[in-house]
């Protein structure tokens, strides 16, 4: 006996995760994962062929784990944002993709900001791009590999490429397009003139994918990928989206809810019906996957900071969590976690720094600072959202690999002085992709997509309340902010 199902894909920096869910109820039927090659700043690249290989392996693993044979009716792909994929006229990949955390285009981006104007750019697209954005990577290619551009027929994002591999269609969605630096989400239009400034005068409009709506069909799975994945014919494919956008959808969150993602990157976000424009550059006023907006602040350094702490303190992640929770009511030490440079604030050459160490500093206090540093970055982003007039009165939800740490949840609740919920969701992004796929399978519209996300609302795995901890957290945040603004962190490439 078969069961009608959908497949959701999360192609992240570190791995590909696939979920298969019952198309009507959202019940999880099976899941799988496969790693991507490691990639680190400043030159962070992966070949799209590796994404395809991981996708196939994860999908086959997910199908094999299902107790009932799933009849997959639709697929949607969500993936890491901002990456640059260049195809030639035959549809072949021309070079490894530059990823979101590739910071080599920072000088090119700085020159573009001077030419376009920071305020003008923000007011056009809702965001002041950083080196993370696709346009910076294209500008880098134009400077360092100019001959390559003569061969470029198509410019895609990572999730676009996997959708292209599935369907042969050159399409994208509004959420991921809004993180390129050359898409106006309010008007729904590409801005080819910005690409002229970044990489020279060309017919850029002909090289860019079609932007689909939230519940639009991108196409059907071609015979070869269907055979590779182990699924049947005539499977529909959704428009897909960015990873954080899909995660927000997957959790069924509403306007004003506080979303904290603690993974390779750190993100604080909420959704809104109207656009947000932050001329300081701290808030990205990007689109969401439901036709609205997802104003967010994203950091480069999140869970990897705690990974590094485990190495330096000679323990594992569980040990770091235990140590951090055992720290007493002391104020310091304080960590500014810009270990690999930083995206927000836009300081690609910055380095991390400890402050307020004393001869009495303990391993527990150091562990707490390692966990707390990335959270203080996110709290700074939350302040920026509030300064833009964004409503943040809803509940706080934490997701991502870093949110599995009891210390991370507790310290976040302490810093917010509010309850934090950990949803009972293994992969929020893949879940969000499943919701879009289910909407596509049922041929519903945007409103139906939103209703479906509400019906699939996950339970809470844990709710963590703030402690009576005895620390002056307002003073801690003030101290952190002063340290984070210090020019001494900009090491100029000295390691």
**Whole-number radius of gyration?**
22 Å
Shape by Cα distribution:
globular
Largest sheet: 7 strands, mixed
Question: In terms of structural class, how would the helical and strand content be classed?
Answer: alpha/beta
**Average pLDDT over all residues:** 95
Catalogue the unreliable spans. Answer: none
Estimated helix fraction: 25-40%
Q: Can you count the helices?
A: 17
Multimeric state: single chain
Distance between the termini: 59 Å
**Based on DSSP secondary structure assignment, what is the total number of beta strands?**
24
Strand content: 15-25%
Task: Describe it.
This protein is an alpha/beta fold and 495 residues long. It contains 17 helices and 24 strands. Strands 1, 2, 3, 5, 13, 14 and 15 form a seven-stranded mixed β-sheet that branches. Strands 18-19-17-16-22-23-24 form a seven-stranded mixed β-sheet, sandwiched between helices. Strand 2 and strand 3 form a beta hairpin. Helix 2 crosses helix 4 and helix 12 packs parallel to helix 14.
